[in-house]
Design goal:
The protein has helices at residues 2-25, 30-67, 71-90, 99-118, 120-134, 139-197, 210-226, 228-244, 252-308, 316-327, 344-353, 358-381, 385-425. The protein is mostly helical. It is rod-shaped. This is KASH domain-containing protein.
Length: 426
């Protein structure tokens, strides 16, 4: 019996060692894992063989003692063991959701369950020996013996049932804890991947334009939104488990849950901010190309007007009118405010109906050119090399056409002035 008691204590150490070895070898590559698991398996087999032999020896000794008439000591010893085991079962704490703690609890409970099953033969032998003593004894002795046998049966059934139920419940808890921890680990790894894509060069290396980057981000944004249900489910279940378990405060599982919550909120905030920022860039790019096309169209129409303008007159009255039509300046010509956004058709019609406003309209559109320059600068800063070249080409085209227009306008004004001098001399 002293040897069996020592065996029970050593068995707890063996199960704890087995648990630690499994946790350690999971992280190792297959070759190294086999080098460790091989000797551990041999050790476990030797231990199980020793355990079977000791249990078998205990049963033989118990039967021998019963055959020699040692029923009462055996009965009392068995009842004492049942009472002690029942107290151990009653002291079992609420299963923890922390996987490491839960697995250790399960390992210890399985040792107790093996001990209970090993005592089944002992209980049966004591019970049968008691039944054999019922008939020959006196009525009082029979009554006491019957009561003891009933207590033996009731305590045995209760211990066996309670041990089995606690093992099943703890196995279910371990299974749930493993599943939830795997889901948490999966979400954490996925969030790390998303954070990598959200880094400076991680998301849109292949995208050339802000619109392409925005579309790629929307795809990632939809992926994040699709994970919302999985995150909410894991967080709700884990939070409920942690609230139900008294020993969950400060546990590794609680720390991992808080880490998941922090990372999820952080990546969700980054996604929102990146979405707004990319949307603003798409709007800016759209406005840039729209304004560039509008300004180019206006310049081309202005050039057509200059090309179709009548030749300078040599008559004093007519040349004076032509110069006034070319040089009259509208109010606000030198202001720095952006020009009114006339359509190309309206500008052309205005210039035809009011020729004197042509020079003023050219001057006012210089502010629109400056605005276009300012709009192109941030676009070039966060665009790819290829798209940056496209923006520079657009601006180069606009500047070239604008320079040609201003040159033609100046030449027209110079020719009108020369024509006026000639008309004055005639």
């Amino acid at each position: 019996q002293e040897l069996m008691s020592d065996l029970y204590l050593q068995k707890l150490e063996v199960e704890t060692l087995a648990h630690h070895s499994q946790s350690f070898t999971r992280q190792l590559p297959v070759p190294e894992r086999e080098l460790i698991e091989g000797p551990l398996q041999d050790y476990r087999e030797c231990w199980e063989k020793l355990e079977r032999e000791l249990v078998s020896k205990q049963h033989e000794l118990e039967k021998t003692l019963l055959s020699l008439g040692h029923f009462q000591p055996a009965l009392q010893q068995t009842l004492t063991w049942l009472i002690t085991t029942q107290e151990l079962l009653d002291q079992q704490r609420c299963p923890s959701i922390d996987l490491h703690t839960c697995e250790i609890q399960l390992a210890k409970l399985r040792v107790l369950w093996n001990d209970v099953r090993a005592h089944e033969s002992t209980v049966q032998s004591v019970h049968q020996a008691g039944l054999a003593l019922l008939t020959p004894n006196s009525r009082k002795t029979v009554s006491n013996l019957s009561h003891n046998l009933q207590e033996l049966d009731l305590r045995w059934e209760r211990v066996k049932y309670q041990t089995e139920q606690q093992v099943l419940e703890l196995e279910t808890t371990v299974s749930q804890a493993q599943k939830l921890n795997q889901e948490i680990q999966g979400l954490l790894l996925w969030i790390d991947e998303v954070e990598g894509q959200l880094s400076a060069n991680g998301l849109c290396e292949a995208a050339q334009t802000p619109q392409e980057r925005f579309q790629l981000h929307l795809e990632l944004y939809k992926e994040v939104e699709s994970k919302q249900c999985a995150y909410d489910s894991v967080y709700t279940v884990m939070e409920q488990f942690l609230n139900d378990c008294r020993d969950s405060k400060g546990s590794k599982t609680e720390h991992r849950l808080h880490t998941l919550q922090h990372k999820w909120n952080a990546v969700h905030l980054k996604m929102q901010e990146r979405k707004v920022r990319l949307s603003e860039r798409v709007t800016l790019e759209t406005q840039f190309h729209s304004n560039a096309q509008e300004l180019i169209g206006w310049i081309e129409d202005a050039m057509n007007m200059l090309n179709k303008a009548p030749a300078p007159s040599l008559i004093q009255e007519y040349i004076t009118i032509q110069i006034q039509d070319h040089q009259v300046t509208c109010p606000g010509r030198n202001t720095v405010h952006p020009p009114p956004h006339h359509t190309v058709a309206k500008c052309y019609l205005m210039a035809q109906n009011h020729p004197g406003r042509f020079s003023s309209d050219v001057a006012s559109h210089s502010a629109q050119l400056n605005t276009l320059e300012q709009c192109s600068e941030p676009l070039r800063d966060y665009s790819s090399k290829q798209h940056r070249s496209l923006i520079q080409n657009v601006m180069g085209t606009v500047r070239e056409k604008w320079a040609k227009l201003t040159q033609c306008t100046s030449q027209r004004e110079q020719s009108l002035q020369e024509a006026r001098k000639h008309a004055q001399q005639v």
